[in-house]
């Protein structure tokens, strides 16, 4: 008789055991959802950083392609910058509007016009993909040294919190972080 009683009590799950199993599985699934959200956020961050690097390298390629402007001492500006679609430089050459190069009447491009056109088109492309970016360039233009420039692009990245403690700390401090990418170029 004792053997039959033990077998009956071990025959199946009780309702409490089933509920505990559901809670454990539910918590595990919530953890997986949080991990997936963090992975998607990190993928977006990596995508943005890669595209910024590619865009900056395209500006560097344009600088290499126009050595008559960028590689000649005292021709390249000491500083230049771009924000939104606006371009400015220390000499006022790159901010001159150049709608096309060569122009509609077939006139060729001087190195100054080509540099302005390249930088303006680059700024337009950057503004389309990354509104709110800024770019600065600092060039050494001394006659005794080869021209070299540091091009820095900055942008704002949104942050994602891993847990409740970092979420409240991040929200209190700053919901987004300014990032930058710098390239050294010697045209």
Automatic annotation (TrEMBL):
Keyword entries, A-Z: Membrane, Transmembrane, Transmembrane helix
Superkingdom of this protein's organism: Bacteria
Give me the segments passing through the membrane.
Answer: 12-33
Would the keyword Membrane turn up in this protein's UniProt record?
yes
This protein's name = Type IV pilus modification protein PilV
Q: Which organism is it from?
A: Ralstonia flatus
């Amino acid at each position: 008789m004792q053997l039959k009683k033990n077998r009956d009590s071990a025959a199946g799950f009780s309702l409490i055991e089933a509920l505990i199993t559901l809670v454990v599985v539910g918590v595990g699934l919530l953890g997986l959802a949080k991990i997936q959200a963090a992975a998607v956020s990190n993928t977006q961050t990596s995508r943005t950083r890669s595209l910024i690097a590619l865009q900056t390298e395209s500006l560097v390629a344009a600088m290499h392609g126009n050595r008559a402007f960028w590689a000649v001492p005292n021709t390249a500006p000491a500083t230049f910058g771009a924000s939104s679609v606006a371009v400015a430089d220390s000499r006022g050459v790159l901010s001159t509007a150049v709608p096309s190069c060569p122009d509609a009447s077939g006139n060729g491009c001087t190195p100054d016009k080509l540099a302005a056109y390249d930088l303006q088109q680059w700024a337009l492309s950057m503004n389309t993909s990354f509104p709110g970016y800024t770019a600065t360039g600092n060039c050494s233009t001394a006659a005794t040294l080869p021209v070299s420039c540091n091009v820095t692009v900055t942008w704002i990245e949104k942050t994602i919190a891993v847990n409740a403690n970092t979420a409240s700390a991040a929200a209190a401090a700053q919901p987004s972080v300014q990032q930058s990418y710098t390239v050294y170029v010697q045209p």
